[in-house]
Amino acid sequence: MAQESGGSTPTAADIIQFVDRDLDLFEAINDGTESHLEGSESLPPVEPLTKAWDVAYVRFSVPDLDLYERWVEDFGLKIVHRDEDSIYSRGIGGDGFCHVAHKGPAKFLGFAMMMSKEEDLHILSENIAGCTEVHDIPGIEGEISGGKRVSFIDPVCNLLIEAVHGREIDPLPPSRERIEYNYGDKIHYKRPANKLQDTSGNREVDGSNTVHPGPPDVLKIGHVVLTIPVGPHHQMMSFMMETFGLLPSDSVYFESPKSAEGHSINPQMFDSLQKAGPSPLYHGTFAEGEATFACFFRCDRGEVPTDHHTFFILSLMDQRQAPEGQGINPQLSHASFEVSNLDDVWRGHMQLKTKAEYLDERYEIAWGVGRHVLGSHIYDYWHDPYGHVHEHMSDGDRMTRSFGQRIHKISGMGPNGHNQWGPTVADSGIRNLDGPAAASFYEDLDKETQQSLVNRDLANVQDLVRRIRNSS
Ligand SMILES: [Fe+2]
User: Fold this and answer.
1) Which of 165, 226, 264, 441 has the most beta carbons within 10 angstroms of its beta carbon?
2) Ligand 1 centre from 204 Cα, in Å?
3) What is the pLDDT of residues 335-374, one digit of tens each?
4) Which superfamily, per CATH, for 10-53+215-466?
5) How many Å lie between the centroid of ligand 1 and the Cα of residue 190?
């Protein structure tokens, strides 16, 4: 937690493990309601500084770049630059690099938002405490995709947040042809006769089927998800809405403690959420004290369709994410990257599974493959070699400003792991998205690496952060 944020962070003694098993959470979400509040007027009455267009990239610091290079390539990102200090990777789209790993202590450093107007960078520079001047993106980062940027350390989570404009890179051709699915009826598309399905381009290589299909093409970064202690999680929702104009698409709330009876969730969770209220999202629609547990945010592109979520905040009550002697800290839940279709999600799953099982790579499944309800996307989550979850996703919902927002009681999400289809509740591993300490191999990492991963203090990466920020 940022040192400057004062006494709002729960201490270790305040933290409760709100569910011991995922089943408790899913059992508790059996029987609730959801509301679709349509139209712009249902959205929080925020006058934002800017309106971000998308997310641009995520930055990590990792001790072993060789190990991490293998991860990046196995995941399906394309490396555009590698030297002894850094790895820059991209999807095949034209927006510039979308993933950065610097050599240094293991840590999630932060993320960048993509702005559609240069003017927005100036507004941020003038209005956000500690924000840099607007500058051309320098060095190798400028050589890769050009553009301008500003950066600041956010006041809630102590992350390095950047805003960029005007980055461009030539798109790459896809590795494989577009898949033509046979829908099996006369109304929808049927694949032409005599055309054999070859989803991986390896069907008849050398007259056999022995060539491993390899990773999918990542198209672009899809969304960033933070998991934040109760209380600060509301503050970060407000900060992102007020700073970047994000709009809530789907949020999940818990009723106030008086209605906790009958739930299998620990009533202490309701107490914690009650202390955090009121939610910044509902502006009088719901009763005081009804705190938001999680919210998916989309960008405000007006009536131009955008992804159901570009940013997502989850509340965090997981003791594993607390450095020794401290309360729990905000963590990266996961960074998500879009691929073309279901075949590509499974191709990624099998690439990572194969490398973990046969080559002992430190990759670990977190949750997948399945299709969510909120956002509708097909998902597959994996821990990278330092426990940071990366997601392959495909076929998510798209919406505009006038969609408004949907609000769900936690008891309205269904008992099936909140899937349209996918793993059983026991296999769902939602707790695996709480942060890097959820990876089973976290305990095997050396103490210094463990502390660096879960501590949001930037002291041990200060030089690196200074170099990134002052490279103007
Ligand atoms: Fe996701």
Assistant:
1) 226
2) 35
3) 999 999 999 999 999 999 999 999 999 999 999 999 998 8
4) 2,3-Dihydroxybiphenyl 1,2-Dioxygenase, domain 1 (3.10.180.10)
5) 31
